[in-house]
Amino acid sequence: MNAPSPSRATAIVTRVSLRPGAEDDFAGWQAALTRVAGEAPGFVSIEVVPVAPQVPDWHVVQRFRTAAALEAWRGGPVRADCLAALEPLLHPDHPAATDEAAPDFYALACVTEVIATRVERGREQAFRAWAESVQGAQARFPGYAGTLVQAPLPPQIAHWTTLVRFATPAQLDAWLGSPERQALLRQAEPAVSTWTSRRLDAPFAG
């Protein structure tokens, strides 16, 4: 894997090129990665972004509070296991994921739902496991254009922030109103105290 630059970066982007037919398995993989990254010390956010619509290339941006926390995550066994599980999904012409210094933002045409969730104290692990199920489900819906999951940043931000992107408002509404999502929301009730959402007609940087 390529080393990110500069050496004291607190974020990296992992470039992934999928083989044909690997989309559903990649949905599950990114959901699992989001969960375990969220458990890592110093985690700030993880962002899964398609390079362009209808292409097999994705960027996975991982942000941490410090360079040391990023390096511990990047070189640790949990992430190594995730990358090993990714290998069968990669395109033969690009058989390894590569790391680079992360850009500040992406600007794809899309519509975004911003969801703020306050999690009951002591139920964070249950919330992350539930969020993995949500991520795996929404990533399989037509029009899915990536997510950003950000941990609380106390004292300023006490909630988890999730940005869900779809190519069109209709495709986003299809996911938000789907029976699959409604069932998942009912499952979350024991672990979540309150949540709110709002619509942005803009990419993640907004």
From TrEMBL:
Could you tell me which Pfam families the record lists for this protein? ABM
SUPFAM superfamilies per the record? Dimeric alpha+beta barrel (SSF54909)
Identify the InterPro entries for this entry: ABM_dom, ABM_predict, Dimeric_a/b-barrel
Boundaries of every ABM domain copy: 12-78
Q: Which domain of life is it from?
A: Bacteria
Name of the protein in its database record: ABM domain-containing protein
- Species this protein is from: Methylobacterium frigidaeris
Phylogenetic classification of the source organism: Bacteria, Pseudomonadati, Pseudomonadota, Alphaproteobacteria, Hyphomicrobiales
